[in-house]
Write a structure and sequence with these properties.
Distance between the termini: 35 Å
Helix content: 25-40%
Oligomer: single chain
Mean pLDDT: 94
Largest sheet: 5 strands, antiparallel
Structural class: alpha+beta
Low-confidence stretches: 3-8
Strand content: 15-25%
Strand order of the largest sheet: 2-1-18-17-16
Order of helices and strands: HEEHEEHEEEEEEEEHEEHHEHHHEEEH
């Protein structure tokens, strides 16, 4: 009799979750998985309630997918766990006659989004001779698996130990007025009245920039094009051009304790990194972590460290190749994303996460989820759509979810709308 009583109680407890799972399974099949644009795609879905430890729905959540910009969730976790409240701008040491400075991969230096520039102030205000100390940088200028043909696209700036201006030139054209910043580089301008739109590009192997425009076009053109970061000598040249000071190169720096100069609050970088899906910020975040922890900048070492030390709880060993998600070598499961998102939710205040993550009507979700019940990171590559984050239902149940879609042959927006329909049903009903 006792055994029967406990079985009845146990089945009664499970009934709501079972009903939810059955309902969500039906919605997923009718509204998402077996309907255009998803019927020929590969998909994985994981929906989890941390408060109860129950999975509301699982569909191929143990399969590996290319997650695109959902990788920034892992970069965010690494930064929040290992960088502290503010970003490391540089290591520096002063003696009676000289200031020695070594970059720590901070992408905010001379970036137009940030007016607070403590490193610039230090360099401008000193009367001492400035020496640039080369950093040990094991990274390449691009991440593993990045597309070489995107070298002139604004979403793929080169990576280095001392970024300046976001590692892009900013070109502005209007009528007879043209400008390029930094002015260190030349801009070749050509008028062509056969063009339907202006073209801004760069030579593949040199910092030669080109603007072609139609003189009949009266609109304002503003474009960003990555420059070649180059060697430490080219970095020194950019610093000299900016500071209007001679910069020495310290091949053998003093064997002294270098201080760390911090710059902007970390969240002021993480928020645009997530909301506008800034690839450069995500990659440099991993490089800053490496610079803060070790002598050598190595994103690979950071990724290995985070997986082996901070994220040992991941259910499926992933392949983690870059910080931004530009690489198609990344392979993660939906359950991996639900795990790291659950850890973020357990370790950091909800208000902070809600501020950092995109939500309906804002950032990369500006055309979706207008009720703002979702706080999540998007991901997009050709044939790839991803969305992972948090969902708060009408009955105030907090869920963690991940939807990864690969090999679709439709528009990304149509796939996003299909995912939105499923998540809206869950929000409305529960």
């Amino acid at each position: 009799m006792k055994k029967l009583f406990f079985l009845l109680i146990f089945s009664w407890i499970l009934t709501p979750v079972a009903a939810q799972t059955a309902a969500i399974k039906k919605w997923a099949e009718t509204e998402l998985l077996h309907k255009t644009p998803m019927e020929q795609a590969h998909a994985g879905i994981c929906i989890y309630e941390p408060a109860t430890g129950k999975y509301w729905y699982q569909y191929q959540d143990d399969k590996y997918f290319t997650p695109a910009s959902n990788m920034k969730i892992f970069s965010l976790y690494a930064g929040m766990k290992l960088l502290g409240d503010s970003l490391p701008a540089a290591r520096y040491y002063e003696n009676d006659t000289a200031l020695f400075v070594k970059g720590m991969a901070d992408p905010s230096f001379l970036h137009p989004d940030y007016t607070y520039q403590p490193l610039l102030q230090l360099l401008q205000q000193t009367n001492k001779k400035i020496y640039l100390v080369p950093a040990m940088n094991a990274n390449q200028r691009y991440g593993a698996g990045w597309s070489w043909s995107d070298f002139a696209d604004d979403y793929q700036p080169e990576l280095n130990e001392w970024p300046m201006y976001g590692n892009v030139v900013r070109i502005r054209h209007h009528l007879d007025s043209n400008s390029i910043c930094p002015p260190l580089y030349d801009l070749d301008i050509t008028a062509d009245d056969t063009l339907s739109e202006s073209i801004v590009t760069r030579d593949e192997r040199h910092n030669f920039f080109y603007l072609k425009y139609n003189p009949k076009d009266k609109s304002v053109l503003e474009a960003e094009v990555p420059f070649i970061a180059g060697s430490v000598q080219e970095l020194r040249q950019r610093l000299e051009d900016t500071l209007h000071k001679r910069i020495g190169l310290a091949v053998n720096p003093p064997a002294a304790r270098f201080n760390v100069l911090h710059s902007i609050p970390a969240d002021s970088l993480y928020t645009p990194m997530m909301q506008r899906s800034d690839n450069f910020f995500a990659e440099q975040t991993l490089m800053m972590v490496a610079s803060a922890l070790w002598d050598t900048i190595s994103s690979t070492r950071v990724m290995e460290y985070v997986l082996s030390q901070e994220l040992k709880a991941l259910p499926h060993p992933p392949t983690w190749e870059d910080g931004s998600g530009l690489s198609r070598y990344n392979l993660f499961t939906p359950r991996d994303f639900v795990t790291v998102l659950s850890l973020l939710k357990a370790q950091y205040p909800q208000d902070r996460l809600w501020h950092i993550f995109p939500t309906g009507g804002k950032g990369t979700l500006r055309n979706y989820y207008q009720q703002q019940f979702v706080h999540a990171k998007t991901g997009t590559l050709t044939g790839v759509v991803a969305l992972s984050g948090y969902l708060v239902t009408k009955k105030n149940k907090s869920l963690v979810f991940s939807v990864l879609v690969n090999n679709h042959h439709e528009t990304a927006s149509s796939v996003r709308k299909a995912i939105e329909r499923l998540l809206t049903m869950i929000w409305r009903e529960y």
